[in-house]
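Mods, move this if it's the wrong board.
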Amino acid sequence: MTSYKMTWFWYMMVTLCVLLTGSTASGTNGAIEGYVILTDGGDSGYAFVIAIKEGTAYGHYTARFDPPYEGYYKIPQLPPGTYELHVIKEGYECGLESEVPVYSGEITTAYVSLAPEGIITGQVKHSDQITPIADVVVIADDGSGFTRIAKTNASGNYTIDKLPEGTYTVKGAKLAYTLSTSQNVDVTSGQTTSGINLIGVNGTISGTVTKSDGITPIEGAFLAAENSSGVTKAHDMTDSLGHYELTGLTTGNYTVKAWRQEGPIAEVSSVSVTDGETTNRNLAAPGGSISGTVKNSSQTAIEGATLTAIKDSKMYIAASDASGDYTIEFLAAGTYEVTVDPGDNDCVASKINNIIVVTNQETSNQDFTLGQDGKITGTITNTSQEPIEGAVVGAIEPDDAENDPTVAFILAITDASGNYTIAHLRTGTYTIFVDADNYVSDSETNVSVTAGQITSGNNFSLGTSGGTISGTVYESDGQTPIEKALVMGRSQGKSSGHTFSDSSGNYSLTLLQAGTYEVAAYADGYDIETLDNIVVTGTQENSDNDFTLDAQ
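Not the wrong board. Structure tokens:
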């Protein structure tokens, strides 16, 4: 802790500075004068008063407390503006007076009261409650923006002084450590609150991430250590040598995962960690890959298409280059499906199923030839014919949606004029649905699309008054509520909507058009249940549409 103790040397230097800058408000400058008042009646020593404007100190003064001075101070030659007065005195809290105005040619009076300081002391140790941790930065925070800090010594001890009376949160910080926090620490003026001890842990997992050869490093990979509950407790990124270090871990077992933006690389489970020790664990990416070329129907290479390989709900991504070539790396042995999104190119999406990858081998010649797309355009407005920006407009091809959703379900967002364009559609018949915040959703069936053509004029006018479907999602006993279940409702050619159940299992689908709805409830670990023929009339609520989901 840095202490501010006024010596005669500093007193003379500050006094000299004041004399050199003048002693009154003059010219275009102003001044601040007043008294520093010690609430305990103290009448000895010195206080250092500093005037700060916009982060810069413009003047200071040393106030004496022995008669006849009695804490008087005066800071002259201050440019006009709004200042903070910071006051420091040994044995007292830090003083602050905000929003002190200074005017040209005038003297502003400001009084600052200082109470005897409160102090917090304690020790920081390892989880063994024995080994001290040095050089920990310990912070006392009162929650209003006032903080004071100290650093632990070789014995792990710290002292935070100059604290105003109040309630504080005390926390520690040190590189490679996770430190505990003490909340609701009460500080009383003129007293010491002791025994505020913190615990630090620094178990570490370190190693390298390489390609399948175990030699070539992978730079820029993300690493995470997850505990047995799947909660991330540390993270890092590999350097140019593929090295990583996951620090601040408590004793226990962890799963280490490595990934890039393009997808997973590798993971290893049951990595044992002991506080204060380092566990070495290297990760090597699988060596399988899928490659090919993306072209349009004229056999022109498509650059910038996004290729996604999917296996066991894990996705691995690559982009086609200027020659249309792509390679999806770091794949384990198994069977994959690969989809292609043509990006800004006027082509339809596509997919190849059942691509077999063999360990450490490349599965090549997985080529795509993408046909020309069709488009659907239109405008979304409200009932006053004002455009709705940010509405979600989707096109779904019912006949193929279940078998091939990648190429049958595509979204667009309306612009500031309410206009939308749904691209990358193949020839077929689609249902369009529209959803916008605070509006009744809508849909249209039997919209025909032809490759190479634009189906225009598919406009919607959305109202703000609709009906409601509500109910509760329970477990199979019909009594235990299920929180965060996804509830979705739809009516062919009319509205659709979705929501999540609350902590009591209650849900409410609002802003629905009049019609007959199918409503389904989904919850992790439970079977799906569907309710049919739920009728919505006008703006009325159809309630008590409850679900009882069986556990899987």
